[in-house]
Automatic annotation (TrEMBL):
It is an enzyme of class 1 (oxidoreductase). Its EC number is 1.11.1.-. InterPro entries: Dimeric_a/b-barrel (IPR011008), Dyp_perox_C (IPR048328), Dyp_perox_N (IPR048327), Dyp_peroxidase (IPR006314), EfeB/EfeN (IPR006313), TAT_signal (IPR006311). It comes from the Bacteria. It is found in: Cell envelope. This is Deferrochelatase. Its cofactor is heme b. SUPFAM superfamilies: Dimeric alpha+beta barrel. Involved in the recovery of exogenous heme iron. Extracts iron from heme while preserving the protoporphyrin ring intact. It holds the Pfam family Dyp_perox_C. It comes from Streptomyces zaomyceticus. The gene is efeB. Residues 72-215 form the Dyp-type peroxidase N-terminal domain. Binds 1 heme b (iron(II)-protoporphyrin IX) group non-covalently per subunit. Residues 296-319 are annotated as: Disordered.
Length: 423
């Protein structure tokens, strides 16, 4: 028995048998194609010991996200506590042949690791852990199509984003031929996947940039709650829900469109922005001023017009002074779908903190990732509106940007991007 066999069996013992995973059940998201399995080694529970005497995984460690499906994982998957965003450029001389081999390798590795299995040549970093909700998502940048001779199949939705007045973009940390999003509820599991995929790139691709993020850990609050960002604000209240009747239409590319971009059926477009928060300036504001900038109460995320976090904004409500209680330049007002012709996007960010900048301020903020069926109808109109008068703009800085086409999920036996690369 090889060392790799030993590592894989050890992880499998923690995950339990296939029968135990089946007994735990499969939950399919309303958007379709995103499954979550709880694989307790004692037949579906996550307490005590398994049939072979090994300790069962906790709930956090046992949760598995499905690799195959209508959509790729990491889009409607519940936000994880750790994340890595990485862009690669194909190496000089590499083209479509090398891209096919790379996507095959990456898909094999991602499928194994999302199921809690050790990949070939495993380092043992996450030997004692289960899958921990690991998800790996792959996307293609605009330049990928030039490098692989597939320019005729490049979607118009990948046209460059317009410039915005508040941008201070670093080209070295923007765009890229290939993009990978990794999320997990355990930091070692997330890093394990990062290292494996970086090694898989071999001579075919080189890292262009990498960003590391985090969210609140599972179980850190008494009940499930919308996460807060580093400004202390509840962030994501207005996100589309998978139960919305128009969710798929807004977030995923429909099937049956035909033509050169039919390979994007079931896929989505990711806009990725590194947004620096000017926390020293923000924290000088009293809470009531912060709330007016956002248009929501800081304590519970409720709109200033009243109610609870999930109460619809009353954009016409007036205060005793005759002015709207949600200011005209409040972030929540300007970004509201009804203020932008119904434009909507699914925001799924991570926070980041990369230490202290040379000027002594925190290099911290939001790794903003949003998903939509068409960025020209999702991100762009909302950002244009924000660019013209959002009160929050004085406290943030967009420092990098990327736009990536994320194809639909692979069917059994397929690798991600196969419908594009082998067409």
């Amino acid at each position: 028995m090889t060392e790799n066999d030993t590592l894989e069996i050890s992880r499998r013992r923690l995950l339990g048998t296939v029968g135990a995973a089946g007994a735990a059940g499969l939950v399919i998201g309303a958007a379709g194609g995103v499954g979550v399995t709880t694989a307790g080694s004692d037949g579906g529970t996550t307490d005590g010991a398994g049939a072979d005497g090994t300790p069962a995984l906790t709930t956090v460690g046992s949760t598995e996200v499905m690799f195959h499906g209508k959509h790729q994982a990491g889009i409607t998957t519940p936000s994880q506590s750790r994340g890595h965003l990485i862009a690669f450029d194909l190496a000089p001389g590499a083209g479509r042949k090398e891209a096919v081999a790379l996507m095959r390798r990456w898909s094999v590795t991602a499928e194994a690791m999302m199921a809690g299995r050790a990949p070939d040549g495993d380092t043992g970093i996450a030997l004692d852990a289960g899958p921990s909700s690991l998800s790996v998502t792959f996307g293609f940048g605009r330049t990928f199509f030039d490098r692989t001779g597939l320019t005729p199949r490049r979607p118009t939705a990948l046209d460059p984003l317009p410039a915005f007045s508040a941008d201070a973009l670093d080209a070295r940390r923007s765009e890229g031929d290939l993009w990978v999003q990794i999320g997990a509820d355990d930091a070692l599991v997330a890093f394990h996947a990062l290292r494996a995929l970086q090694k898989d790139a071999g001579d075919a691709a080189r890292v262009r940039w990498q960003m590391n993020g985090f969210n609140r850990s599972a179980g850190a609050t008494a009940k499930p709650m919308t996460a807060r960002n580093l400004m202390g604000q509840i962030d994501g209240t207005g996100n589309p829900k998978v139960t919305d009747p128009d969710f798929d239409r807004r977030i995923f590319v429909p099937a049956g469109t035909g033509g050169a971009t039919d390979w994007m059926a079931g896929g989505s477009y990711a806009v990725v922005r590194r947004i620096r928060m000017l926390l020293d300036d923000w924290e000088k504001l009293p809470v009531d001023r912060q709330e007016k900038v956002i248009g929501r109460r800081k304590s519970d995320g409720a709109p200033l017009s009243g109610g609870s976090e999930t109460t619809e904004l009353d954009l016409n409500k007036l205060g005793p002074d005759g002015k709207t209680v949600i200011p005209d330049n409040a972030h929540s007002r300007i970004s509201a779908p009804e203020q932008n012709g119904g434009a909507a996007m699914l925001r799924r960010p991570f926070s980041f903190h990369d230490g202290i900048a040379p000027d002594g301020t925190p290099d911290a903020g939001l790794l903003f990732v949003c998903w939509q069926a068409d960025p020209l109808r999702g991100f762009v109109p909302v950002q244009r509106k924000l660019d013209r008068g959002d009160a929050l703009s004085s406290f943030i800085r967009h420092e990098s940007s990327g736009l990536f086409a994320v194809p639909g999920g692979p069917a059994e036996g397929e690798y991600v991007g196969q419908r594009l690369l082998e067409s």
